[in-house]
Amino acid sequence: MTPTDPAVNTANPADATSTRTDPAARAAALYRAVFDPSADPSLRGLRGRFDRMLDEFPLDDTDVVDEITVAGRPALTVAPAGGGTGVLLWFHGGGYVIGSPAGYRHLGSALARVTGRTVILPDYRLAPKYPFPAAPEDATAILGEVLQAHPSAVLGGDSAGGGLALVAMTALRDSGGALPTAAVLLSPLADLTGTSASVTEHSATDPAVTATSLADIRAAYLQGHDPADPRASPVFADLHGLPPVLVMAGGSEALLDDARTVADRIGEAGGTVELVIGDGMVHVWPLFESFLPEAAVAMERIGGFVGAVQTVG
């Protein structure tokens, strides 16, 4: 690929409506149950529904889960049976207001399986109690400490966690720090302005992210801060000098343009980037790999990308 022309793949691995209609509908229904406007509107209620959705997914009972502390923050590690070869640091999603390492154990388990690495799931501070810039400060400190111990670690994140991964990498780059060997961004929330065409186009049908939910995130997380600040919306950051990046987004999600713009700007800055668009897929569709065929294929794609990293640390 040329630096200014990211590789773009429209993924439809099932290639048959009959094989994806029911599982895809189930994934959308799970999101709708979490963000049901008639349910308990409190933050506690929303966090509980999100974690309960994640708890429905299976864990590999051979995984080894431990509690650690990274840069002063609690974290979980999920290692495949026999131990991982290398480390994958993963920032969970949840719009900077929900999500937890415990809730993301199942995704950590799947990532450990496909990459063969020990997955670190840190507990960064959440809004509204800890508004911007608490999350990027935590993410940058956590990434820096992980890289000190594991210089060839891979970085990843989904949704808000994908945005945090970008912000942390640019912060370390600007300070002269080390960078991860590669990065994986799933449906990154990289533009909090909410002005992209895909937000307008897909808000009515996206079960997870809408223009309204982005406005709620701005209110809770930014609390009046400029949403175009590159530390909040890394689509506005200088994205030169980053390691190889895999960006994945659902073709039917509101954050599709966030992913496209991130990939374009990394490519324009001379970086190596691969953009995978899941045809008809929802936000962070690899999350549903236990029952959605396209998600299982996407997870294998992630494993292949990480496996191509030559140096392990």
TrEMBL record:
Pfam families, per database record: Abhydrolase_3
Signal sequence extent: none
Biased composition (Low complexity): 13-22
Domain of life from the UniProt record: Bacteria
GO molecular function, one term: triacylglycerol lipase activity
Keyword Hydrolase: yes
Chain residue ranges for the region called Disordered: 1-22
Bias type Polar residues, positions: 1-12
Ranges where the Alpha/beta hydrolase fold-3 domain occurs: 88-285
Keywords for this protein: Hydrolase
Entry annotated with the keyword Methyltransferase: no
The family this protein is said to belong to: Belongs to the 'GDXG' lipolytic enzyme family.
Name under which the protein is recorded: Alpha/beta hydrolase fold domain-containing protein
The organism of origin for this protein: Nakamurella alba
